[in-house]
Amino acid sequence: MSVFVGLDCGGSSCRIIAVDKGGRLLFQGQSGAANLTSTPENRLRRNLSHAAQGCPSPDFVCGCFAGLVDDDSRARGVQQLKHLFPKATVRAEPDYYAAFHAAPPGTHIVLIAGTGSLVCSQHEGELRKSGGGGYLIGDEGSAFQYGRDAIREYLRNPEDVSDALRETVIKLFGEVSHGEIVSAIYRAPTPAGLLAKLAKPLGVDARNGLPYALKCLERNSLALAEVVRDHLRRHFVQESSAVLCLAGGLWKGSSVYRDSFAVAMEQTEGAKITLVRPTEAPIHGAVRIAREMAYGN
Questions:
Q1: CB atoms within 10 A of CB 49
Q2: What is the DSSP letter of 12?
Q3: 247 and 111 in contact (C-beta within 8 Å)?
Q4: In sequence order, what DSSP letters do the residues of 245-273 get, joined into one string?
Q5: How does pLDDT run across 237-291, given as a tens digit for each residue?
Q6: Please, which of 18, 29, 87, 269 could form a disulfide with 51 given CB 3.0 to 4.6 Å?
Q7: Sheet containing 14-20: order of strands
Q8: How far is residue 147 from each of residues 161, 203, 214, 216, 232, measured CA to CA in Å?
């Protein structure tokens, strides 16, 4: 019996599932961050091993990783997969491959917004991307960007923030001083993933009309819309319309993010965009690639 394994490895968590030839679920696991660029090597290997504990021995494996940005990081991804599954045929791809292969039929572009963000579409059999770049130089409109604005608001005046934001900050850091929070962020193994957890209470604040949250929402939505428009200008020159799939955890956190992004797209010039949501999680896209590997694709 052939076993196919897919991994979806991001800046906040990694997921793994195994299926048989008929698509029957055999195993699923989850653990912490597994970004090939930002997660420390020992922590990444430990998280992957924990997620895969108990997984049946597979024949084909596709791991889709955040932080897979060049040949060196691809080689490290393959090495990690071979360590987990020494008998399997393995393949490492960027995380957006999983999201694209899980998008609904008819999708032209996938916009992923989780801890980070990027845009991708397929042309002549190859995926081309825009945006990304990590939290230090890019990831416009990502959960990290929203979380960073939320913690700034809290640190400016912790006594006047919303209950939603205060409770989340205390849950993440404890009832500690300004300096201790800053220190904890910089000492965190994955600062971007940590701050991304504050995107949810910021969404609550935006829905409740708090000025800082509304300004943050408008600014980040416009920045992300411009990344999409730039991608359209470069790769969809002749198209008057396109279907864009919103993938990633940000869109699940609050509907205000989708609504604000839709408004931002209408405010920028270009092709008419229809927004859709995935019908499957990205992890199923990774499994789909693993199954295609059996046929030499």
A1: 14
A2: S
A3: yes
A4: EEESTHHHH-HHHHHHHHHHHHHS-SSEE
A5: 777 889 999 998 999 888 999 999 999 999 888 888 999 999 899 999 999 999 9
A6: 29
A7: 25-31, 14-20, 3-9, 60-65, 89-94
A8: 14, 10, 14, 10, 28
Q: In degrees rounded to 5, what are phi and psi of residue 168?
A: -70, -40
Provide the 10 A C-beta neighbour count for residue 267: 11
Alpha carbon 85 to chain centroid distance? 24
CATH code, 3-101+281-293: 3.30.420.40
Query: pLDDT grade, residue 297 (50/70/90)?
Result: low
Provide the 10 A C-beta neighbour count for residue 219.
Answer: 16
Do residues 114 and 248 touch, judged by C-beta distance below 8 A?
A: yes
> 3-101+281-293 and 103-279: same fold?
yes
Q: What is the pLDDT of residues 163-189, one digit of tens each?
A: 999 999 999 999 999 999 999 999 998
At the topology level of CATH, where does 103-279 sit? Answer: Nucleotidyltransferase; domain 5 (3.30.420)
Instruction: Give the mean model confidence (pLDDT) for residues 55-77.
Output: 94
Exposed e or buried b for every residue in 98-107, given b needs 16+ CB within 10 A?
bbbbbbeeeb
Backbone angles phi, psi at 121, to 5 degrees: -155, 160
Q: pLDDT digits over 127-143, tens only?
A: 999 998 888 888 999 99
Task: Return the amino acid letter for 215.
Answer: K
| Segments making up each domain of the chain, as ranges | 3-101+281-293, 103-279
Other residues' Cβ atoms within 10 Å of the Cβ of residue 292: 15
0.70 surpassed by pTM = yes
Average pLDDT of the segment spanning 47-65: 96
Q: Report CA torsion sign: 287, 130, 77, 249.
A: negative
Q: Rg of the chain over CA atoms, in angstroms? A: 19
